[in-house]
Fold Initiator Replication protein.
Amino acid sequence: MPDTQLDMDHLSGALRRETVKKNVAAIHISGKLTLLQRKLSNVLLLNAYDSLTTAQTHTIDARTLAMMVGYNSNDFDTLRASLRALAETVAEWDMLDEKGRQEWGVSSLLSFAKLKGGICEYAYSPALAQKLYDPKIYALINVHIQRNFSSGHGLALYENCYRFVRTGSTGWWALEVFRKLMGVDGSDYYTSFKHLNAKIIKPAVAEVNKSSDILIEPEFRKKGRSVTDIRFLIKANPQKAMFEIDDSDGVRNLAVYKTLRKQGVSDRLARQWISEHGEDYVQQKLDYVAGQGDVKSTLGYLSAALRDDYKAPAAETVKPPSPEALAAAKQREEEKAREDQAYAARVAERAERARKLAIVEDLVSRRNPTQRDADKRLFMSTLSDELDRENFRQHGWRSGLNANAIFAFWEELEPDAFQTETPA
């Protein structure tokens, strides 16, 4: 949608946070939801979280809701059907309360939802709202990561594994529990482990490892020849580590990327082509395809032009470029100069962050164990945001989310620690 950026600029503070605290008990209740419904449930919770226990109802612009979930903003029939499914889905939890007593409860995922005047209004039951808001046990679900998933089973497995990333394993689940988490407990077909493994486990594991910030590996426990239990070993995906600087935003700012997107090329394919061929080569093929007039499939023709290096035949007489063409070429040169300058700045920033990180690691290595524990507690006390604190618990001094705060902390402890040269 061409106006997506405009919508993003008007998102509320809760939606800008990009993560949602999702209660562990609540993660287990939505196994039967489709991919779209699961994403919709997460976005609604993210939007409502700050006032989850203080407001009776919550609202969100319907077009913004559609944009964040990832479907046509005018497809209100699909939105209505998905909201109806959330209201008809039963949530069930079985957990210990603050006094250690067992608590069982049941509720619909949404107590009501309505669309009126382009606004979606909805509510949770008070009991479920308390469970969703409980800060003691939650997983941080990244709403941007969920957009990468193309199956509900993959996203369900990610949600149920992510909260165990710090412990490295989900622990053993009986297969009937796992089937319930995946929403296939009512299917006779999936009582067969062969079918469950081929159609659910293997595809879902592959999607989690490809699309998210964790890597998982299933292990099975048998009784005789039958598989009875499953668990997943979990570790951070090094290619999507929080501290690494993803240059995707830089590519997305290139003029050639924006032209590709206007031609209907997907985000992933556009970045892949630019990475493989370089922006100048891709721009040449865009210009070539534009000069061919109407074609049946612009995307297919462009793909072939890139693959086979299509070139326009040499003209016998070369016409001087028009004033418009000269102006367009000059504009492209100026844009490329700005892009090169911005890219150089990002490279320099990356190098500087890496240099400071190495210094922090060296400073930490010099401290004794008691000092290290004290340093961590002291730094943690300076963090007020729970997301920042959770990220530091997971990544320690390599926490990319807290990089600037980490550097400031160590510079205060060790003045001149990050100077590039020794003062005279």
About this structure: Residues 259 and 286 are 8 Å apart (CA to CA).
